[in-house]
Amino acid sequence: MADEKILNEEVASTPSNFIYDFIDKDLAEGVYSRVQTRFPPEPNGYLHIGHAKAICIDFGTAEKYGGKCNLRLDDTNPTKEDVEYVDAIMEDIKWLGFNWDNVYFASDYFDFIYDCALKLIDKGLAYVDESTPDEIREMRGTLTEAGNNSPYRDRPIEETRDLFARMTAGEFENGAMVLRAKIDMASSNINMRDPVIYRIMKATHHRTGDKWCVYPMYDFAHPLSDTREGVTHSLCSLEFENHRPLYNWFLEKLELPEPSRQIEFARMNVNYTLTSKRKCLKLVNDGLVTGWDDPRMATLCGMRRRGYPASAVRAFVDKIGVSKAYSVIDYALLESCVRDELNANADRAMAVLRPLKVVIDNYPEDKVEEISVEINPNKPELGNKTVTFSREIFIEQDDFMLDPPGKYFRLCPTKEVRLKGAYFVKYASHETDEQGNITCVHVTYDPTSYGGESPDGRKVKGTIHWVSCAHAVDATVRLYDRLFNVENPSDEENVGSFTENLNPESLTVLKGCKLEASLGSAKVGEGFQFIRQGYFCLDKDSTADNLIFNRTVALKDSFKKG
After folding, report:
1. Other C-beta atoms within 10 Å of 84: how many?
2. What is the residue-averaged pLDDT of the chain?
3. What is the mean pLDDT of residues 313-334?
């Protein structure tokens, strides 16, 4: 191993990516002649925003150096893993825009890893320990006190071999004994105090069935899988930094050729989000969200369903950069990246979420016009589309007030307003129901102001959107906001339980919304800017008779920190 000092030094605040600096050094010194990485998630849950950073770093590094990046599923714990999660992980990686060179599983290497355990036993570097989990935990010591040797530590090699074979044959029950590496119980690094490397687990594995009833621990399987697979640089999050000496110890003692090198980077921590699989599972099981892909969840599938473009997530990761310093990223930065991406690429459409009927009294009853509007002002090459205009239209309820405050530039008795792309209109009268609620507004229009301009040059400050009553399609719209109303929902000191930190306004459902006719043919996941409203996409729950749109993000950040 070359000098690893660079891994532990403070990384200067420069545009340079320290991972690339380290790899460049390895290549220049001939430590490696190629670059190969891997993304190794455990298939026991859905990927979240934190995984997006790891995916971008692992696959992006391989792309930069013309190398390979494999997907390797760490399936060393059969009691928590499922094919459902494997499929979801693969879908998320593809959605982010990456392709793996090969798909492997830690279970592909079980025979190899087992042989490595036998080699450690034969070298006198591993022993079977019959202590209970609590006893092993106690003998490990603390951060300030050395550990104590197990009474089984000096067990003869032949006896350990025999017991390990009997463990493998299923003679003992779960928890009866484990295989531990023999390193140093006085090490200042607790991870080096004779860690467990194999445990008994009588469980059916989703790939190997009932072949095994002993399974390797992650710290043992990880370096061996990396090196066996040909990984040169094992990139992982900073919590594994203290495990690196153990990673290197296994590779050194087993004398494996071209051993992999571990490099750590800071995890992505985003406020107002929850990424703990255990806590997310509680949200799902308790019905506090609709599932792992609920658009309020920080899972990648939830963000995809909400309408976040993959390119925006990648841009977010790029803006954060790579460092070894702990930090918490403001969720607003992610929303800003999503907003920028959709502003540039989403088609515009007119949608009235809280409709109020408007009748244009002097407009011919049988007249229908096709109004030309831009598809996307940022992409003039797309040209215009037409939206049907008629005598009766819908506008937003808050676009009309009888007694408005100052600087109100929408429809009211004293102000003329522009209907987007169409005409100037003025208030004439209104109708109310028995409770006094306004149900309909009557206006008159200026036929010479087609296109929103008047020949006499008069100025109109207010422009509002609209939808023709006869040509509108009905829809349900879900207005999503952040799921939690505190910056760190996992901090139980906030309230007492993370579920008590839920934002009660994280979802508002609007029924009876009126959309322009073209949205009737929208595809699931397709994103639009609803003019003056925000960015929305069609949800998978939609049917031909029941369109459902999710708000991806508002036009501007309106979330107030609690």
Report:
1. 13
2. 92
3. 92
Distance from the Cα of residue 64 to its chain's centroid? 23
d(CA 481, CA 434): 35
Q: Which of 80, 153, 207, 267 is catalytic?
A: 267
Task: Check: CB of residue 190 under 8 Å from CB of residue 65.
Answer: no
Catalytic entry in 42, 130, 241, 392: 42
What are the Cα distances from residue 110, in Å, to 84, 116, 225, 445? 22, 10, 9, 77
CA distance 6 to 165: 42
Q: Check if 140 is active-site.
A: no
For 312-345, give the secondary structure using H, E and C. Answer: HHHHHHHHHCCCCCCCEECHHHHHHHHHHHHHHH
Sign of the CA dihedral with 125 first, then 128, 131, and 136 last: positive
Query: pLDDT tens digit string along 41-55?
Result: 999 889 999 999 999
What gap in Å lies between CA 117 and CA 121, rounded to an integer? 6
- Model pLDDT, residue 14: 37
Q: Which of 179, 194, 205, 187 is nearest to 116 (CA)?
A: 179
pLDDT tens per residue, range 190-223: 999 999 999 999 999 989 999 999 999 999 999 9
Between CA 232 and CA 73 the distance in angstroms is 18
Note if 53 is an active site residue: no
Taking CA 379 as the corner, what is the angle to CA 377 and CA 383, rounded to the nearest 5 degrees? 80
Please, are residues 92 and 41 in contact by the beta-carbon 8 Å criterion? Answer: no
At 15, the pLDDT band (50, 70, 90 cuts) reads very low
Q: What's residue 325's pLDDT?
A: 85
DSSP 369-381: EEEEEES-TT-GG
How confident is the model at residue 459, as a pLDDT?
85
> How far apart are the C-alpha atoms of 322 and 267, rounded to whole Å?
9
321 Rama sector, left if φ>0, alpha if ψ -120 to 50, beta otherwise: left
Furthest-apart CA pair in the chain: how many Å? 103
Annotated catalytic residue 410: no
If residue 216 lies in a helix (H) or strand (E), which one and from where to where?
strand 214-216
> Tens digits of per-residue pLDDT, 28-44?
999 999 999 999 999 98
Task: State pLDDT tens for residues 232-271.
Answer: 999 999 999 999 999 999 999 999 999 999 999 999 999 9
Half-sphere exposure of 213 (CA within 13 A, CB side): 15
Q: Which long-range contacts (CB under 8 A, 24 or more apart) does 442-450 make?
A: 442/358, 442/359, 442/360, 442/361, 443/358, 443/359, 443/360, 443/361, 443/411, 444/360, 444/361, 444/362, 445/360, 445/362, 445/363, 445/419, 447/423, 449/418, 449/423, 449/424, 450/422, 450/423
Choosing from 202, 253, 277, 385, which is the catalytic residue? 277
Strands 126-129 and 214-216: unpaired
